[in-house]
Amino acid sequence: FGMAAFINKEKAYLNKRLLTEVGYYLPSARINKRSPPPDHNNDYAFLKIEGANFPANIQASISHEILKKPNFHLIGNESFDTSQFGYQTPSGRPIQITMVYGGSQTKLIFQIKDAFTGMHHCVQACKGIIEACCDSLNRMANQIRYLKYFIGIPCSAVNDASHYVYFNDDSDLCQACKRRTSHDTFFCRNCWISAAKMCNKLRKEEDHHLTFSDLSQVVQDVAEKNMISMLRKKLNVDIHKATKSYQEDRQLMEALMKWETKQSSPRHSLIKILHEMQLNHTADKLKLHVPITSP
Ligand SMILES: [Zn+2]
Ligand SMILES: [Zn+2]
Q1: 85 and 66 Cβ atoms separated by less than 8 Å
Q2: All residues at 6 or more sequence positions from 237 whose CB lies less than 8 Å from its CB, including other chains
Q3: What's the rounded Cα separation, in Å, for the pair 59 and 207?
Q4: CA of 234 to the centre of ligand 2 (A)
Q5: 232-249, pLDDT tens digit by residue?
Q6: Interface predicted TM-score (ipTM) of this complex, two decimals
Q7: Which of 34, 41, 72, 217 is deepest in the core (most CB within 10 A)?
Q8: Digit-coded pLDDT (tens) for 160-184
Q9: Mean pLDDT of all residues in 126-130
Q10: Could you tell me what percentage of the chain is helix, strand and coil, using 3-state DSSP and rounding each to the nearest 5?
Q11: Which of these ranges, 79-83, 161-165, 189-193, 236-240, has the smallest mean pLDDT?
C-alpha cells in the first residue's frame, strides 16, 4: 500500500494529538478494521455514484476537497473504509462527520458532542461535505463518461426505499419524508436534506433548463386560458423594446426564456408559478417524475 495524502500539518490530528509527519496514510490504505455500524439505522444520508466505470480513489479525492475548506480537519481513525472529519463551529463546539465508504454508496453520518450546537451549524458542516463531494466528482466526471452522483436519504416510511435531494428541490421526497416530523430520531438526516437543498452544485440534471417545447406548451396553455398578462406579471422581467410590437404569445416566450436564465432551478420554479395560477394540468406536464404517493 502506498496511498498517502499530503495534508497541511495543522489539519491532521490523531487521537487529539497533532501529527508531526506531514504525510498521513489515508484510511483506505489500512487493512485492519472494518468500521462499526452506526448507532441509528436510518439516520444518515448517502452519496450514491453511478457510472459505467467506477472512479478510483474517491476516498482520497473527497478527503482532499474537504480539507481545502475552512473549519474542517481530519480525525485519525483505524478503520480502512471510514474517513472522519471535525468541523469547528464559531462557538468552538465541534461537529464530527463520518463517511463510511462502501462501493457505489458512501454513508454520511455526523455526531455533535454538545447538545447546544445549533442546527444551522450542523447544516453548514453538511453543506461543506456535500460541496466537497460535488467538486471532486465533477472533476472526475470530466474524465469518466456517464458518471453520475446523487445525495440521498433512506425513506423514513418505507423499508429499503430512498429519495434523492437536489438544490432548491425536495420534490423526490415522499410525503412522510417531506413532513420531517420525527425530528429527533432523524436529526442527522434532516440536516443533510437542508444542506443538499442549499447546495447549488447539486443540481438536478434535467432541471438545468426547460426545453423549447416545454416553454411552447406553457405559452399555448396560458394563451388558451387568456392568462398571458398574468404570467407576464408573475415572471416580472423586461423584454427587449423591439419585441414589444410582437404578438402577445411571442412576447411571453421571450419573457420566459429571459426569466429562465435567472432561475437556479427553472423547472421547479415554473411549476410553482403555474400552481399559483391554478394551472395544475400545465404544471403536471412539466414534472419529470411521477411523485411517490404517501404510504
Ligand atoms: Zn450560531
Ligand atoms: Zn420517504
Answers
A1: yes
A2: 255, 258, 259, 262
A3: 28
A4: 32
A5: 999 999 887 777 778 888
A6: 0.70
A7: 72
A8: 889 999 888 888 888 888 886 555 6
A9: 96
A10: 40, 20, 40
A11: 236-240
Strand pairing partners for 98? 84, 109
Query: Domain residue spans in the chain?
Result: 4-203, 207-286
CA separation for the pair 39, 36 (Å, rounded): 9
Of the pLDDT bands very low, low, confident and very high (cuts 50, 70, 90), residue 122 is very high
CA of 126 to the centre of ligand 1 (A): 15
Dihedral sign, CA of 35, 36, 37, 43?
negative
Per-residue pLDDT, 184: 65
d(CA 245, CA 155): 52
**93 Cα: distance to centroid of ligand 1 (angstroms):** 10
CA dist., res. 62 & res. 90, Å (int): 24
As given in the structure block, the three cell numbers for residue 200 are 447549488
| Closest ligand to the CA of 295 | 2
Q: Compute the Cα dihedral for 240, 244, 247, 251 and give only its sign.
A: positive
Report the helix count and the strand count for the chain, using DSSP H and E: 9, 11
Spell out which residues have Cβ within 5 A of ligand 2, the ion. Answer: 155, 157, 174, 177
Average pLDDT, the chain: 80
Measured distance CA(33)–CA(27) in Å, rounded: 10
Cα 121 to ligand 1 centre (Å): 6
Ligand 2 mean position, distance from CA 87 (Å): 29
- Using alpha carbons, select from 185, 167, 47, 278 the residue that is nearest to residue 176: 185
The Å distance, Cα 199 to ligand 2 centre, comes to: 21
Say what the pLDDT of residue 288 is.
64
Answer whether 81's CB lies under 8 Å from 28's CB.
yes
Q: Cell match 499530503: residue?
A: 6
